[in-house]
Amino acid sequence: MSYQSYLNKKLYKIGGSMNVNVVEVLDFYGLLNYIPNQYKHEIKINCPFHDEIEASLNVSLDKGLFYCFGCGEKGDIYDLICEIDDINRLQAMIIASKVSSNKEIKYKPKKLNYEKLKKQAEVFFNGLSKPDWENINDHYMINRGFNSKVLKQFDVRLNYQGSHPIVIPLYENGEFKGYVCRREDNSEPKYLYNKGFKKNNILVGDLEEDHILIVEGVFDMMKAIQYGIKNVCATLGWSPSEHHLEIIDNKLNGKLVCGYDNDGPGEKGFSKLKERFGDKCVRFNFPNNRHDICELSRNEFQKNILKLFE
């Protein structure tokens, strides 16, 4: 890369140890998609630990620290190397030293063991206690209009050791695939997924051959089920993947109702579904400019969705 002058000036002591060139390390692992300005102290890159479209990993070039606003991974440059290569800190320091000094070193990328990460996520989730939702009156989820029945059905648990204490397991056809954590306010990021979770590889739900309601998030899915629609799936975003489409194609026996959010991305998602399923796909009409299904009352939801199934 053509930033040698930048590299020569940007050597930092990480954690009081040897000098490390953060830019060289990031470039070595293929994480840079542009040359950072030599006066820039922080950059944002795609996180290597979870699937994402927009970059969410913030890296301090001065301090050698990183934090992902998408999955919550954080630490210094050595922690980053340890996580990517599954090695100890001493080994990571040796790699960082060689890379920073421009010594010839060949990197063989190590793939994440997604099955192992999924098992770790399941162990973590099963270790959380089950709230007694029937006797909880004042909580974020209750205040959002979710009743104890649906909270128990989705096995929603709480973990106040982190910033995203609401933990919801995610299943595809009855198989545990991971979990999503939610904040108790609207600060960003609202959601965090377990390490290694790839949204494009899971369609949340247990579909039967029937009409299907498709939504973006698990909260919308929970509210739709609470309001009486059982055959619901969630793509965890507005853009359905080929994996999502194939499952829906195999289960669709009637209409596909698109309940994606009432905004620009939601309309783009509807267009993708329309391309695949044609006239079978219809758009849920949100009354009173409501943004998503979570904002609807039971009466508003049922009145508008029943029209589509007639």
Entry keywords:
11 helices; DNA Primase, Chain A; alpha+beta; disordered N terminus; four-stranded antiparallel beta sheet; 310 residues; 2 domains; 14 strands; 33% helix; Dna Topoisomerase Vi A Subunit, Chain: A, domain 2
Q: Quick gist of this model?
A:
By secondary structure, the protein is α+β, with helices and mostly antiparallel strands.
Walk me through this protein's architecture.
The protein is of the alpha+beta class and 310 residues long. The protein is globular and about 70 Å long. The protein has helices spanning 4-9, 22-28, 77-85, 89-100, 114-126, 140-143, 148-153, 218-226, 242-251, 264-277, 298-308, and strands at residues 12-13, 19-20, 42-45, 57-60, 65-68, 74-76, 157-158, 166-172, 175-182, 191-193, 210-215, 232-234, 252-258, 281-283. Strands 3-4-5-6 form a four-stranded antiparallel beta sheet. A four-stranded antiparallel beta sheet has the order 7-8-9-10, with helices on one face. Helix 3 (77-85) crosses helix 4 (89-100). The protein has two domains: 4-100, Zinc finger, CHC2-typedomain (DNA Primase, Chain A), CATH 3.90.580.10; 116-308, Dna Topoisomerase Vi A Subunit, Chain: A, domain 2. A hairpin with a 2-residue loop joins strand 8 and strand 9 (175-182). The protein has eleven helices and 14 strands.
Question: Which structural category fits the helices and strands?
Answer: alpha+beta
Shape: globular
Total helical elements: 11
Count of DSSP strands: 14
Spatial strand sequence of the major β-sheet:
3-4-5-6
The low-confidence runs, each spanning 5 or more residues with pLDDT under 50, are 1-9
- CATH topology assignment of the largest domain: Dna Topoisomerase Vi A Subunit, Chain: A, domain 2
Please bin the fraction of helical residues: 25-40%
